[in-house]
Amino acid sequence: MAYITCKNAAFAYEGKIVIDELNFVVHAGDYLCIVGENGSGKSTLVKGLLRLKTPARGAVEFGNGLKSQEIGYLPQQTDVQRDFPASVYEVVLSGCLNRLGRRPFYGAAEKKEALMRMEQLNILDMRRQCYRELSGGQQQRVLLARALCATQKLLLLDEPVAGLDPIVTGELYQMISKINRELHVTIVMVSHDLEGAVGQASHILHLKNKQIFFGTKDQYVHSPIGRAFLGGEEHV
Amino acid sequence: MCELLTEAVSYGFMQRALIVGVLMSLCAGVLGVHLVLKRFSMIGDGLSHVGFAALALASVLHFSPLAVSLPLVIAAAFFILWAQGHSEIQGDAMVGVLSIGALAFGMILIALTTGVNADVNSYLFGSILSMNKTDVVLSVTLCAGVFILYILFYQRVFAVTFDETFAQATGTPTGYYQAVLSLMTAVTIVVGMRVVGALLISGLIIFPALSAMRLCRRYRSVVIVAAVLSPVCCVIGLLLSFFCSAPAGAGIILVQLAAYLLTVFISILRGRSA
Q1: Which stretch of DSSP H or E encloses residue A55?
Q2: How far away is chain B from the Cα of A73, in angstroms, using its nearest Cα?
Q3: What is the pLDDT of residue B118?
Q4: Pairwise CB contact (< 8 Å): A104 & B159
Q5: Residue B157's pLDDT band (boundaries 50, 70, 90)?
Q6: Does position A64 have pLDDT exceeding 90, yes or no?
Q7: 10 Å Cβ neighbour count for A70?
Q8: ipTM score of the complex?
Q9: pLDDT tens across B247-267, in order?
Q10: Does A81 sit within 8 Å of B219, measured CB to CB?
């Protein structure tokens, strides 16, 4: 059974349907890349998958033991975070909040988890540093570690490489691929950076206010939509 | 110097002022970190004006001031929080609307009944030196409650302040914790109005947080520094105003301002040496 099943789902924003006819599945181990131009409904779909928005019609179902609060999330950065005084360790540890239950403070298990995630993302040596003083790429790795603390199953990444330079972008894609292959975490990534994103993914969902393509990457690259969107670059 | 200090603390009204002042500024200091980072700095100002209107109402109806102001200010805090997601008006403008409206309402109410007198002055600038035993017990209980709640919810407060969407997406009931924070803020403001008055209460919320953020780069250190700095400034301010026969509330705020300017100076010096 699939982790996420979208059945003819539509999402509305202020009463107006912005994304429609969504029919796709995400299985354990998949690396799904959601592409589409600005305003094509990507952000709305992200909110829907996080259950911050209920579908206007149709359904989004979670299965295979995935609970909706077990989705790790890498948000687009907000203004608040840029001047926020917090150490890397504090930020990563806050990802463990959904394991606390009714306990007020973190225990040894959560602290161990946070240290392990920082080690996996090569940020252990900067754990005492201030989050706001890190470079954009480092900040994204900190937020990835936090997201991994919140999930073992599925990561939802919203424009993870926006504003990063090409080298750092490449490193981050490698890191995400590694998380997918070695830690067996399912990835759902929203991106407008086509070449980089499509290269890594196993499946593609293309949106243009409705679903205009869903399938494997190979199918996409050889489809008319894929060819047009990728500008004939079939080598990706 | 020592004699003067002993003399100051030997007065019952100074003891009461010090106890309430320290506890209240502790609460305002730690909550202020959250409010400043959430861009809610002026919420103290808005709520205190609602508190002013509530006090005016209480004095007209001959009710106990706290019995009227506490529920009204809590209601206003929840309203501001709710309006965030449900109104066309931006958060800061909403605080302004509420604040100005309440101030005007309170002034009219007072002018039409008792007339503008010493009571009004004490609402606006605090009356910490005229607290009786009942006031002290009530204020101490409220502040202790707020502080204990803050410690127990510390990790949640951090998560909600840093990234509300992430916390919500990963299963934290953020609306509930926002409501608890609003409740704590409202209680702190109501007690704080007694200490520094409706016009100056924002200072107790903003200054310790700003000073602490100048000095520290970790959230926990920021909270701890604000929690220490705020009561220390309060005690110094109270004693100085006692020696100079100056208004206590304004004295406390001026010391807070001085401490902030000092931290600005320190951070500039640090920046040069680095």
Answers
A1: none
A2: 6
A3: 62
A4: no
A5: very high
A6: no
A7: 17
A8: 0.86
A9: 888 999 999 999 999 999 999
A10: no
Q: Can you give the residue ranges of every domain in chain A?
A: 1-66+155-236, 78-152
Q: Compute the 3-state secondary structure of chain A and give helix, strand, coil in percent, each to the nearest 5.
A: 40, 25, 35
Residues of chain B in contact with residue A190, where contact means CB-CB under 8 angstroms, are: none
Chain B residues with at least one Cβ partner in A under 8 Å: 37-39, 151-156, 158-159, 161-163, 165-172, 213, 216-222
Can you give the pLDDT at residue A232?
Answer: 53
Q: Are B28 and B205 in contact (CB under 8 A)?
A: yes
Structure tokens at A214: 């869903």
- Please tell me the distance from the alpha carbon of residue A161 to that of residue A197, in angstroms, as a whole number: 9
Q: Which of B158, B168, B169 sits opposite A90 (nearest CB)?
A: B158
A183 shares contact with chain B (CB less than 8 Å): no
Pick B218's closest partner by Cβ from A51, A87, A150: A87
Q: Looking at the domain A1-66+155-236, which fold is it? A: Rossmann fold (3.40.50)
Q: How far apart are CA A77 and CA A164, in angstroms?
A: 12
pLDDT in tens, B171-203: 889 889 999 999 999 999 998 888 888 888 889
- pLDDT score for A235: 46
Q: State the CATH class of domain B2-267.
A: mainly alpha
Whether A90 sits inside 8 A of B170 (CB atoms) is no
Q: Can you name the residues that pair with A155 across neighbouring β-strands?
A: A72, A187
What is the CA B103 to chain-centroid distance, rounded?
Answer: 17
Alpha carbon of B76 to those of B54, B85, B192: distances in Å? Answer: 11, 15, 16
